[in-house]
Design goal:
There is one protein chain. This protein is of the alpha/beta class. It is 41% helix and 20% strand. The strands form 3 sheets. A 7-stranded parallel β-sheet has the order 3-2-1-4-5-6-10, sandwiched between helices. The protein has a 3-stranded mixed β-sheet with strand order 7-9-11. Strand 2, helix 2 and strand 3 form a beta-alpha-beta unit. Helix 1 crosses helix 9, helix 3 runs parallel beside helix 5 and helix 8 crosses helix 10. The termini are far apart.
């Protein structure tokens, strides 16, 4: 299968591309810089130069491919506080690619997050059947699923907030480690009992390939290995590996301590992947979050 991958040189993409190539697929990665192009080329993928703002290019690349995996997102804009702008650009990019694929029955695998379930399924284990009405990245998720009715074999993989491995250089775990180093304390909010799901990068990459190859149209999938790690345990792993004290941060001080993560670190987001495993036969095989953190690679820089 000829597969067009956006975000091919990023954290998840750097695992998805080798996964696809090893399975015999041909890959073309979208690269917004020469350094990104070099990463794709080194992995064995072809390159299309451009960004997710190049809508005509996205339409053309999607139309020429046998399937699309969409991983790119304007994370820099999100981190600077422009989540609306990042989500809007993502939605426009997805609309362009889905329009090009309409009526072809080709696969399109999109990306979302489990954190939306903290609101859609409060106080309980979130499942693939839980759906939020809209807002932010939810609009892109819902559009992708709804487009199955237009003759595209769409699926969406919801990533947990902690997709972890030695490939994770800029995600939430490295960010929390950086905050702990800067503050001199590994913090959690309140009693730290709120839970974050987690999944290993290589397990997620395998799920993207399975979704591309065989996910039924209109399927939501969860790349979740750990259903819910208490946030205090994440802070304790950071403190243990950095030799720092672990302390509770008052809710009213969370924004000052954690910055743009101030709200997110308080969310309770236990998430199941039971339906994903049944539908695609996917089983996580790599270490869970705490075991992976204790391997030390996050703390070598």
């Amino acid at each position: 299968m000829r597969v067009f991958v956006t975000g091919a040189s990023g954290h998840i993409g750097s695992a998805v591309v080798p996964e696809l190539l090893a399975a015999g697929h041909q890959v073309t990665g979208l690269a917004r810089s020469q350094s990104s192009a070099d990463v794709c080329t080194a992995a064995g993928a072809a390159v299309t130069h451009g960004t997710i703002d190049d809508l005509d290019l996205l339409r053309s690349a999607a139309a020429d491919a046998d399937g699309v995996i969409h991983l790119a997102f304007k994370h820099e804009a999100m981190r600077s506080g422009d989540l609306h702008g990042a989500a809007s650009a993502d939605l426009q990019a997805i609309e362009a690619m889905l329009d090009a694929l309409a009526g072809t029955d080709k696969p399109f695998v999109g990306t979302s997050g489990t954190l939306l379930l903290a609101m859609a399924a409060p106080g309980r284990l979130g499942t693939e059947a839980d759906v939020a009405p809209g807002g932010g990245r939810v609009d892109a998720e819902n559009l992708t699923i709804d487009t199955a009715a237009r003759g595209v074999r769409t699926s969406v993989i919801r990533l947990p907030p902690t997709v972890h491995s030695s490939l994770d250089l800029h995600g939430f775990i490295p960010t929390l480690i950086g905050i702990a180093r800067a503050k001199g304390v590994a913090g959690y909010v309140g009693d730290g009992a709120n839970r974050w799901p987690a999944g290993h990068t290589l397990d997620a990459a395998h799920l993207y390939r399975l979704a591309l190859e065989s996910a039924p149209a209109g399927t939501r999938l969860h790349a979740v290995g750990d259903e819910g790690v208490p946030f205090k345990e994440i802070a304790e792993a950071i403190g243990r590996n950095l030799g720092l004290p672990v302390e509770s941060i008052a809710p009213e001080e969370a924004d000052a301590h954690f910055g743009f993560l101030g709200m997110l670190v308080q969310l309770d987001n236990p998430t199941s992947s039971e339906l994903t495993r049944k539908v695609l036969g996917w089983e996580p095989t790599y270490p869970g979050l705490i075991a992976d953190m204790d391997e030390g690679h996050y703390f070598n820089n």
